[in-house]
Amino acid sequence: MTKPVIETTAMIAGMRPELQDAEFAFVVWPHDKAWPEGTRASCMEAEGLSLIVPIDAAPAGAISMKCITLRVHSSLEGVGLTAAVSDALAQSDIPANMVAGYHHDHVYVPSNLAEKAVAVLLDLQQGAGK
């Protein structure tokens, strides 16, 4: 296991964005219904249970999202990676929904903007490495 990276510039320079093949959707899910196979994340909100599920398990009309995994093992105490990624994508008019895991951060973007988002993040990474 690698040691988590905590320094902002090092996290950005080492993020190595990787686009996942599958498509997902953010949905509100009934508490009494089993989660779909392939569910990626959950969040209990005051309004109900939110899940990130494979697009095929989502209701018609759900927004199709792709996941970009930032391959750096970012520290949970690290500051600035999420802000830098969100800002870079916002500057390119790309909506971003961030999800933090223990080892990596994941950025969900509309499927039709996923390739552009990866290019933006690669530019950000290269700029941090200089």
What does this structure look like?
Strand 5 and strand 6 (105-110) form a beta hairpin. This protein is an alpha+beta fold and 130 residues long. The chain has a single domain (8-128), classed as VC0802-like, CATH 3.30.2130. It contains three helices and six strands.
What is the CA-atom radius of gyration, in angstroms?
15 Å
Q: Give the overall shape.
A: globular
CATH class: Alpha Beta
Q: Output the CATH homologous superfamily.
A: VC0802-like
Return the CATH topology: VC0802-like
Strands of the widest sheet, in order across it, are: 2-3-1-4-6-5
N- to C-terminal separation? 27 Å
Continuous helix count: 3
Mean pLDDT: 94
Number of strands: 6
What is the chain-wise order of helices and strands? HEEEEHEEH
**Structural class by helix and strand composition:** alpha+beta
Total tally of structural domains = 1
Determine the strand fraction and express it as a percent band: 25-35%
> Regions with pLDDT < 50 over 5+ consecutive residues?
none
Pfam families: ACT_3, ACT_7
Protein name: ACT domain protein
Organism: Ruegeria atlantica
Domain CASTOR ACT: 66-121
